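As a warm-up, study this chain.
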Amino acid sequence: MAEPSSRTVLTDIDIPFGSLVLFFVKASLAAIPAAFIVALILGLIGWLFRLVFGFGHMSGMMTW
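Now compare it with the structure written out below.
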């Protein structure tokens, strides 16, 4: 038989201000290397698209 589901309602979280500030500082510092890694991955994907599909190889030849 299935057990009846119980619901929990969270009404208050008591986090000291200093701990919250420290958490946000750590999170912002951790975001910097993560942004570099994401930029590197996106750059590699873009390089692969240019390598396979040849984007931009005729951009200098179009004169209007």
